[in-house]
């Protein structure tokens, strides 16, 4: 689950990381009031679940409350990476002497939290990672011991020659590490970790991604979810108990099992198509899930063909077939449907589908090729 910057800032602040104050506005007038209360120059920042806001024009400095209101008016309603800005953060503008990067992510390869730091922080960190990876220092942390002081200090000295600043950065890294465990994060990032001309080290941007599997243990974090900031189809899928990720392609995929869903997406790409989504209808046998899934997929205007790929095990093919028939009775499909199913109760499923006027395939390659072709001609 993604959090907004202002929520991530609160989490960092609670761990004792120096983060400037600030408040959230949903209207230019609110932004003006916050700027008045803070006094002096402020920064107005789009709160959307996307990086690169600075480059997209979603981060603006204002010298006074009137300018803050004007920037808020421009930023609210703006779209950044397909997401509409509904809130802005108004915070005191910091004077920046240098920008570093500090991040912790759970690395599956080393099966450990990995701390990454770079003195080349700021808005071009992705380019640094791609073109000068040696400027990013990594440390895999042994979770049994946590991030030790000497390790954090060693990394702090990669960021700052000044020992006081290196110590401050080390302190921030240890607190960020604690934050990861406190909220169940899979990623926690500060970029920029800025120094001011006076020498203070502060976090000016924060990104925290929560591991969905941790939400049950952290109801106070789960309550931070902003469904308005997510793709509507993903919200609907979550409510229906489906594992769904919206993608940009034209072949809607309805598959049982995450592994088969990924294999299906690979094959769609292999045959020259683009999947419109990742969807795992799960291992259970429930026609309603198929109805919900079809509703979500057909609501996506980018979908040109729908591919069912079902390997019947615990999921019974006849249940899926019934779900398809029920769904198409409830709402007409505006795109062609290609069905591949094999396994438990396959013969019964074919009978149900044939009676309802559908045909079904058993070969996965053939089905995928057909769906890709239909998406192209539709
Ligand atoms: P991002 O582009 O989505 O990562 O948004 P950031 O919050 O990191 O802001 C982008 C850039 O705006 C930063 O790298 C800074 O250079 C600049 N910026 C952000 N906050 C401030 C601030 O308080 N003062 C100044 N001078 N620049 C800021
Ligand atoms: Mn940033």
Q: How would you describe this protein?
A:
By secondary structure, this protein is α+β, with helices and mostly antiparallel strands. It folds into 3 domains: 21-92, ATP-grasp fold, A domain (Dna Ligase, domain 1, 2-Layer Sandwich), CATH 3.30.1490.20; 98-222, 2-Layer Sandwich (D-amino Acid Aminotransferase, Chain A, domain 1), CATH 3.30.470; 231-377, Rossmann fold (3-Layer(aba) Sandwich), CATH 3.40.50. The chain is built from 13 helices and 17 strands. The protein has helices spanning 5-14, 28-38, 65-75, 125-131, 149-159, 163-183, 219-222, 232-239, 258-270, 287-298, 317-330, 346-355, 364-377; strands at residues 23-25, 42-46, 59-62, 79-80, 83-84, 88-92, 98-107, 112-118, 137-140, 185-195, 201-203, 206-210, 243-246, 251-255, 277-280, 305-312, 337-343. Strands 7, 8, 9, 10, 11 and 12 form a 6-stranded antiparallel beta sheet that branches. Strands 1-6-2-3 form a 4-stranded antiparallel beta sheet, covered by helices on one side. Helix 2 runs antiparallel to helix 3 (65-75). The longest helix is centred in the middle third of the chain and has 21 residues, at 163-183. The chain starts with a helix and ends with a helix. The model has no long low-confidence stretch (mean pLDDT 94). Manganese (II) ion is lined by residues 191, 205.
């Amino acid at each position: 689950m993604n959090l907004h910057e202002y929520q991530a800032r609160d989490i960092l602040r609670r761990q004792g990381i120096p983060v400037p104050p600030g408040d959230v506005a949903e209207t230019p007038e609110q932004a003006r009031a916050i700027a008045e209360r803070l006094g002096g120059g402020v920064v107005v920042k789009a709160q959307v679940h996307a990086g690169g806001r600075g480059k997209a024009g979603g981060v603006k400095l204002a010298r006074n409350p009137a300018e803050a209101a004007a920037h808020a008016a421009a930023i609210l309603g703006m779209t950044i990476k397909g997401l509409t800005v509904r809130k802005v953060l108004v915070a005191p503008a910091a004077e920046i002497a240098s920008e570093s990067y500090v991040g912790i992510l759970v690395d599956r390869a080393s099966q450990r939290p990995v701390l990454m730091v770079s003195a080349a922080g700021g808005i071009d960190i992705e380019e640094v990672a791609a073109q000068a990876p040696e400027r990013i220092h990594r440390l895999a942390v042994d979770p049994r011991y946590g991030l030790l002081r000497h390790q954090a200090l060693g990394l702090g000295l990669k960021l700052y020659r000044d020992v006081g600043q290196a110590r401050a950065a080390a302190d921030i890294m240890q607190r960020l590490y604690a934050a990861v465990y406190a909220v169940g994060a899979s990623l926690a990032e500060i970029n920029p970790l800025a120094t001011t001309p006076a020498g203070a080290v502060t976090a000016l941007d924060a990104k925290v991604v929560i591991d969905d599997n941790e939400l049950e243990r952290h109801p106070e974090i789960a309550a931070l979810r902003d469904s308005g900031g997510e793709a509507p189809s993903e919200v609907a899928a979550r409510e229906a108990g489906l594992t769904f990720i919206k993608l940009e392609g034209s072949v809607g995929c309805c598959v049982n099992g995450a592994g088969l869903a990924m294999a299906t997406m690979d094959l769609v790409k292999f045959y020259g198509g683009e999947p419109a989504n990742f969807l795992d209808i799960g291992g259970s046998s429930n026609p309603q899930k198929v109805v919900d899934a079809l509703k979500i997929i057909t609501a996506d205007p980018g979908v040109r063909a729908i591919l069912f790929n079902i390997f019947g095990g615990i999921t019974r093919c006849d249940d899926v077939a019934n779900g398809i028939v029920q769904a198409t009775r409830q709402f007409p499909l505006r795109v062609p449907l290609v069905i591949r199913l094999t396994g438990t109760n396959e013969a019964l499923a074919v009978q149900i589908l044939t009676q309802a006027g559908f045909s079904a395939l058993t070969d996965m390659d053939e089905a995928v090729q057909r769906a890709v072709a239909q998406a192209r001609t539709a």
